[in-house]
Amino acid sequence: MPELSRILAALAAAPGQPAALATLVGVEGSSYRRPGARLLLLADGTRLGSISGGCLEDDVVLRAQRVLATGRPELATYDTTAENDLVWGVGTGCQGVVRIFLEPIPVIRPPWIKVLAENLRARRDTALVVVHGGDQPTGTQLAAGEPTPSDGAVFRETIFAPPAVFIFGAGDDAQTLVRLAKDTGWHVTVADSRPAYAMAARFPLADAVVAAPAAQLTDVLPLDARSFAVMMTHRYSDDLLLLRALLPLPLPYLGVLGPRKRTDRLLAELQRNGLVVVDAMRARLHAPVGLDLGGRTPEEVALSILAEMHCRRENRLPGHLRDRPGPIHG
Fold first, then answer.
1. pTM of this prediction?
2. Which residues, in sequence order, are bridge partners of residue 228?
């Protein structure tokens, strides 16, 4: 579960507790985390999230405790640009300046928390602002809410809906992919023609589990132009039906598990039966699915699939960070 989702879940699970929320609102130079990183401290000491690689957290928690006690927000600035910086974590060497805004979260939760939680469940984007300066630093609010100051002391952020991946095939190897996808923030649907396999009990982390005949699966699922799909049924007849239905859809990514020869055979049979496979279809088809990481176990295969999907989602080509010109984050 992503950091922000864990924070929202913690607030929902502690309705009688006030909290303090730290948000990374500005970065100059290098920083382990990017603006939008958050850390939550509940009144009982529960802590979730992070705003650095661990070097600033202790001081941020002390400030968060003060915010809890006073109910007043604070803006903290940490400068790690000095060569011999030993103040924040025995010489981080990050060479950056970060600004962190800490705000109280009262027992009566601000409206943005409920709206954001509902939007994430419904896969809708949410625009937020964090007002961290001016005469009245009001903290986090919906972008369409109260007026914000024009002095630049505002961090604006869009919390995007979680990307959706539809996993066709409910075998044991799909369980591993589901777990890894949920850990990295995907909205996951598992679909299979076998009701005995497509059960919520087998996929407790999945957002939806659907059982239907292979020829009907794509008709009952909310596939759209933002949907990723992975075929891993291990059944040739099901894959033939699914590939016929999925190839013409404008999906950004369609992965097929199995050897290249098997997929070539599927495509050849579809073409003999009248399907015209155009270049655009082949461009979004990833078969064999996954990056060449040398994986053999279900966990390693799932990692290679998810890494390839993430590259596609971020419009990145697979490669080594050491070979990337310029900064890591665009």
1. 0.82
2. 165, 253
